[in-house]
Amino acid sequence: MVFAGAERKAEGGREGGLQEREVVYALIIINKAGGLIYQRDFADGLNKLSINDYLVLAGTFHGVHAITTRLHPLHPPPSLDPNTRPDPPSGIEVLETENFRLQCFSTLTGTKFLLFTEPQQPNVDKIVGKIYELYSDYVMKNPFYQLEMPVRCEGWERRLVGYLRVLNSR
Amino acid sequence: MVVYSFYIFDRHTECIYSRLWARQDRPISTSSTTSGGNTLVPDLGPARARPARLSAQDDAKLIFGTIFSLRNMVRKLGGPDDSFISFRTGQYKLHYYETPTSIKFVMLTDTQTLNMRNVLHQIYVNLYVEFVVKNPLSPVEHPGGEGVANELFELALDQFVKGVL
């Protein structure tokens, strides 16, 4: 019971070698204030929540992400050169559970992309990068899109779904 | 592979044990007790680049808040039998294990470390149960960490963590 995850992991590893199955369950985009601006499911595997719960989840994650930047037990000595500044600590990048894996990509402007995938999914960085590319091309360059507001762009929707459908059916 | 710290939280959300292995080469802190031989670090004055370091208790509270929120989030999304195993940031990795009695074991390591869930389970079974639960002098609950930090447990934990690495 307790080690169900570990056993499943071992099985998943074997299967992964045979058929390379990749499943992306869902995508969530959180704006820099912690508001949910986009949510979509691509495959079954996660529970369906109400839109209210997704909003709560986005806010919670935003807060937890901020806390995790402060938890590092080692603090590097302050840099003596006043012209350089150390990289800011990153928050959660990957979260693993028994049923899924959450990859969080935080852009320089503070927008967070949360991608929920299978626990053993390889190359999630590349997928998130591609999604970010689509976002900058079809959301940020859309003259009718209002910053920090929910994403409702037809072109983005079409290309995102197209990209992930191909990925999930591989 | 480096283990930075280890925490146990009881079912009343209290931190009943914490242990730090990470050595602070140059403490930046000014709020904690002054260690005497620290005259090399100049006082940088009020214009501080980063906020003052948190105390160990505040750290434990933040960690509990984090794991509590994440655990609830994971249960909501992955179903009630899903459980959260670990998360990684650019600087560290946090491993989590919860017993059926809601005692939570948390370990912070460097980012290269693989899954430590079995290790946390071993700590529970072989150390916590043996030296804390079976200790006739230890209370059933551990308010304020009473009865957890006994000599045998600390010694065995130290050896175990060193042996694992």
Could you outline the blueprint of secondary structure elements for this entry?
The complex is a heterodimer of chains A (170) and B (165).
Chain A: H1 4-19, E1 24-30, E2 36-41, H2 51-68, E3 92-97, E4 101-106, E5 112-117, H3 124-140, H4 154-169
Helix pairs in contact in A: 3-4
Chain B: E1 3-9, E2 15-20, H1 56-78, E3 84-89, E4 93-98, E5 104-109, H2 117-133, H3 151-164
Antiparallel strand pairs in B: 1-2, 1-5, 3-4, 4-5
Subcellular location (chain A): Endoplasmic reticulum; Golgi apparatus, cis-Golgi network; Golgi apparatus
Keywords (chain A): Endoplasmic reticulum, ER-Golgi transport, Golgi apparatus, Transport
Main location (chain A): endoplasmic reticulum
The N- and C-terminal alpha carbons of chain A lie at a distance of 32 Å
CATH fold description of chain A = Beta-Lactamase
Radius of gyration of chain A: 18 Å
- Stretches of chain B where pLDDT is under 50 for at least 5 consecutive residues are 26-41, 44-49
Oligomer: heterodimer
Report low-confidence residues of chain A grouped into runs of 5 or more.
1-19
Count structural domains of chain B: 1
Keywords (chain A): Endoplasmic reticulum, ER-Golgi transport, Golgi apparatus, Transport
Protein name (chain A): Trafficking protein particle complex subunit
Pfam family, one (chain A): Sybindin
InterPro entries (chain A): Longin-like_dom_sf, TRAPPC
What does this protein look like?
The complex is a heterodimer of chains A (170) and B (165). Chain A is α+β, with helices and mostly antiparallel strands and 170 residues long. Helix content of chain A is 39%, strand content 18%. Chain A has a five-stranded antiparallel β-sheet with strand order 2-1-5-4-3, with helices on both faces. Chain A has a single domain (24-73, 88-169), classed as Beta-Lactamase (2-Layer Sandwich), CATH 3.30.450.70. The longest helix of chain B is centred in the middle third of the chain and has 23 residues, at 56-78. Chain B has a five-stranded antiparallel β-sheet. In chain B, helix 2 packs antiparallel against helix 3. The N and C termini of chain B lie close together (6 Å).
